[in-house]
Amino acid sequence: MIATAPAILAGAVAGLGLTVAIAGATRSRPDLTDLLRRTDARRLEHAGPGARAAQTSVLERLGGRLLGQLGEGVIRLPRRDLELLGRTPARHVGEKLGFALLGLLFPALLPAVVALGGGRLGLTVPALASIGLAALAWLVPDANVREEAAVARQEFRAATASYLELVCLERAADAGPSEALHKAAAIGEGWVFTRLRDALRRAELAGLPPWQGLRQLADELGVPELAAPADIIAVAGEEGASVYTTLQAQASGLRGALMTEAQAQANIASEKMIIPVTALVMLMAVYIGYPAIARIMAA
Question: How many other C-beta atoms can be found within 10 angstroms of the C-beta atom of residue 150?
Fold first, then answer.
């Protein structure tokens, strides 16, 4: 039965090679939505540097090939989360392929381990375990991306509140709407302000107003807190209205919402600690009290 593991491994590798060969020989129809998104010249992401799309790893190249063959209509990708984290779809699909391959090959070692222990394991159980584990492992990168994006989105919201206050100060210093947006973005540091500066720069290169760049960035990243001040600044830029009070109220409201969410998360974390602390206290009580009770009962 030890030979079963190499047989499963050889069959998996042969099946994977056959699938790749068939996919490379056949020309599948591209996804229409993905094709239109790539060819839309009005999107600001096409005005950015092309170095971001460079593929360096083997898994990323395989992910790019699979994504090009099937399209995003078949492989559902968390596009906003990937944009927020700065990861390419090809890299994400490559990670999914890597996890799925590990899940597919890991159960092939079970027959060898069982045989070393003196037992026997048929081919059906490792094959079913390989398929099930590969399907579960395919979903692991999606869960990781959602978790990381939630943390990054929270950080982006906090930085947006600071950005709004900086824009308020620039407007109070009699700066124009466009000038206030650019100066406020140039002051801040960190990856959030870098994304803001890139969005403003791409909007300028595309011949669009800066608030349009902020609107599209908010839509791409799924951060609606950035779209609201962009609309407010648009009113100031297009109609010449005074928006200092509105921006200040928006920044205060956003900071209040962030503080409320932080307090709620702290309360949840405190509630989660009740059970471990209670169990620890009970264990210590038993550990300290049991010898005394045992001596009393023995007397």
Answer: 12
